[in-house]
Design goal:
Strand 5 (about 245-250), helix 12 (about 255-265) and strand 6 (about 270-275) form a beta-alpha-beta unit. This protein has 25 helices and 19 strands. The protein is α/β, with parallel strands linked by helices.
Amino acid sequence: MRFSLLDTINSPADLRRLDRKQLPQLAGQLRDFLIESVAQTGGHLSSNLGTVELTIALHAVYNTPEDRLVWDVGHQCYPHKILTGRRAGMNRLRMRGGLAGFPKRCESPYDTFGVGHSSTSISAALGMALAAKLKGENRKTVAVIGDGAMSAGMAFEAMNNAGVADADMLVILNDNEMSISPPVGALNNILTRLMSGKTYNAAREAGRHMLGFAPPLLELARRAEEHVKGMIAPGTLFEEFGFHYYGPIDGHDLDALIPTLENLKKLKGPKFLHVITKKGQGYKLAESDPILYHGVGKFAPGEGIQSGKGGGKLTYTQVFGDWLCDQAQADPRLVGITPAMREGSGLVRFAEQFPERYFDVGIAEQHAVTFAAGLACEGLKPVVAIYSTFLQRGYDQLVHDVALQNLPVIFAVDRGGLVGADGPTHHGTFDLSFATCIPNLVVMAPSDEAECRRMLSTAFAHDGPSLVRYPRGGGTGTIPSTQLDTLPLGRGEIRRRGQGVALLAFGSLVPAALAAGNELDATVANMRFVKPLDVDLIVELAGNHSLLVSIEENAVIGGAGSEIARVLEERGLDVPLLRLGLPDRFIDHGEQGQLLAELGLDRDGIVRAVRDRTDLQQP
């Protein structure tokens, strides 16, 4: 009976049939269900708890899915999924074959736009709104964007366009005073320090009361209010973009949310509603530490997340964080940069020990890369800590502002390869392909934790742009040294001598290649460098083996194997090459090891692929 009301909601149409007095009860049950469900599966928790009432209000007022609802990033979409007929599937959230952790168009007609990366909602909603206008369709479009996502230039590019296009759309700023890392930037300071407080609104209401609503005085007060707002309120900023600004209002008060949305639904043109919510709302542990409860594994709701248990393997992220602090201690030129991913990229200790050399630029990957270029121009050694999937957003800057000028910027690229439950929006499957083609850029992929540290030191010592790409989670359990040793640039190594077949493995798949090499009695090379390739090693292996096999956790098209093929072709080496990597499709979510096995990139898959190929080569 705990979810008696929630169990009756199989679509937003069911929600819209409820008496409004029942909605707070629904919100309570939905919040309890979220905590219980995510505790069993893992996933994003704090952000979803903060949008329970907002989600209910949106589906109560708007005729979804006919009216379009676009969630930015999608960290807050679980209440939306539950209310749109997917409650029963929440027990397999982010699991292979289960619900995706983000809105996904092929999963439900209520997911009007697929997301996972930040700051795309306003652009998408604008496209939908103008499409409705062109087609003569009378439907509404709403974009829900967080205050952290508003730090990205793309959001303002879209608003700049929307204002002059006179689009019939609503942008809701879900201001919870939090991004994944603590929020930064001038815009956030305005939103949280001024408008989230009571001073401005209390003064406005008191002034109106004192004036007694006399029309001439009210008009004078209105003009004075606009002048004051121009000095202290973010509303004026959004009004200048051509939006009609409303708010802020309490995002957990359904009696305020629903009438406001009903009124805004009747208005034409671009509208901007500022909503204040609390991340982790309704679960005290998440309220007190919303960063810890942003993305969670399985836990007991009554006990919360128990840190310090289990003593798992050292992760590549931790290896990077330790190296960064040690290298910073040794060289005052080092500065660390993150686009709003301090915790995820392993910069917490660095930020504490070297605050003056730590820069969180907000959700602004393009700016992060060019900012690093500017620092490098002045003789500093910037290290950009970024996920592979997010580096895609700064690609032009990587090419034009860093590599073209041959600036010594180090890219510590985390989550290279398959990341697991977050799925295709977060898999780092293209970085070797898009990085290797860039002149001047050194590209490395470590086979274990110790090699990762040495590669980072190699990148720092290199007088030019470099990229070290490492996977999510732990590796082989190898314990790195505490030294800052480097590797010879562009040199791989033979890890196992065999005969007939040579496995040329890159980065995270070297352990699987070694296991397959033992089964096949094959030679195994840890190639280390994707660029510059160890050409001498490739030529040597081609000269005394009947089959070369490249192995990488990257798109097989344009990846490291393609570079090996180019070397063989340029030197006229007539030896067969089998290229193993990720197929030409987007890979769904699921556990990392399970996905690699399905794609034939574990030990058994490599052995099977080699034997199939050698059978074909038999006369």
